[in-house]
Amino acid sequence: MESALLIIAPKPVQAFAYPLREEYDPKSFAKVPAHITLFYPFVPAALAEEEGGKLESICGKISPFEVILDRYITLDDAVALAPAEPAPILALYQALAKTYPDYARADYRPHLTLGRASDPSTIPLPELPSFSFRVEKLHLYVGLPDDVAPFIPRLTLLLG
């Protein structure tokens, strides 16, 4: 089993992302709700509870922050929503990366994937609303890397 550390988007973003993710990113759609990934893969699922104290300590030092998703971006094989100002998410990521450098990526870009395709420009995108929400917690999900079952939330980590 493996784990993922995620920012789960609120209901309005979930409703917007639902049809796109269902059709154009069915593997992720079946695993977890719409989210901004911080770390995946993350710590082995068997260590999730053990790592909870470290994660709570880090998260407790980070104040909750606002995120505005107001633009589409294209990644290698995906189209995603991106934050207007990624700095708070990047600061959170860097704080976590200090404790978990083995899971950190030098090219980390916060985003919420909506769909995947060999040519992401072929994914029909609706007019983009602007979503604003407060990030007050992170979620550690665990599950099997195959497509058999969804991941399950294991820990909720409060910021601040």
Low-confidence stretches: none
Tally the helices: what do you get? 4
The biggest sheet amounts to: 4 strands, antiparallel
Strand content: 25-35%
Q: What is the strand arrangement across the widest sheet? A: 2-1-7-8
- Helix-residue proportion: 25-40%
**Principal-axis shape:** globular
Strand segment tally? 8
Order of helices and strands: EHHEHEEHEEEE
Question: What this model shows, in words?
Answer:
The protein is of the alpha+beta class. Helix content is 29%, strand content 32%. The chain is built from four helices and eight strands. Strands 2-1-7-8 form a four-stranded antiparallel beta sheet, with helices on one face. A four-stranded antiparallel beta sheet has the order 5-4-3-6. The longest helix has 14 residues, at 11-24. The two termini are 29 Å apart. The relative contact order is 0.28.
Structure at a glance:
This protein is an alpha+beta fold and 160 residues long.
What keyword list fits this structure?
8 strands; 160 residues; alpha+beta; 4 helices; 4-stranded antiparallel beta sheet
Write the layout of secondary structure elements.
Blueprint: E1 2-8, H1 11-24, H2 26-31, E2 35-39, H3 48-60, E3 65-74, E4 78-83, H4 87-99, E5 112-116, E6 131-135, E7 137-143, E8 152-158
Antiparallel strand pairs: 1-2, 1-7, 3-4, 3-6, 4-5, 7-8
